[in-house]
Amino acid sequence: MADRVEGVDPADFRSALARFPSGVTIVTTRSEAGTLHGFTASSFAALSLDPPLVLVCLDRGADCYPVFMAAERFVVNIVTPAHAELAMKFATKGENKFAHGRFAFDDERHPLLPDAAAVLHCELRQAVPGGDHVILIGRVHEARTGGGEPVTWYRGDFLHLGERAA
After folding, report:
1. Average pLDDT, stretch 102-114?
2. Which residues form the Flavin reductase like domain (predicted)?
3. pLDDT at 4 (0 to 100)
4. pTM
């Protein structure tokens, strides 16, 4: 009989993870029927430079989960402090998320934030199960940067980065 492994207390785990600041993104796509979908993610990272790959984690319980599993493309918007309220809307179930922000559209009609700190246009390459989330691996086909500084999520709130030295 294998040794029983004690599980970590979920509150302790969440508290420990909150001590690690992470960037905030709004990830968007368009369904085959043309409806817009998106979610807020702080689990986002560069995966590879050659080829250019990123990863973002999506909760399997999210309303938009089935749409992203069927999507061929998605857009990662790295948000600024001006998007903090919008990011909270995109983290909420049942919210009409696209009613709260000013979105532009790429050539394939995927929504993007024109004033984001950066925007990455991705092709979904792989969806890897990861517990209660799925890891979306995207091949970046276009990347552009904006003028704003990104915002981070730390200890349950937004943390604004300081101005860059000249």
Report:
1. 92
2. 17-160
3. 42
4. 0.87
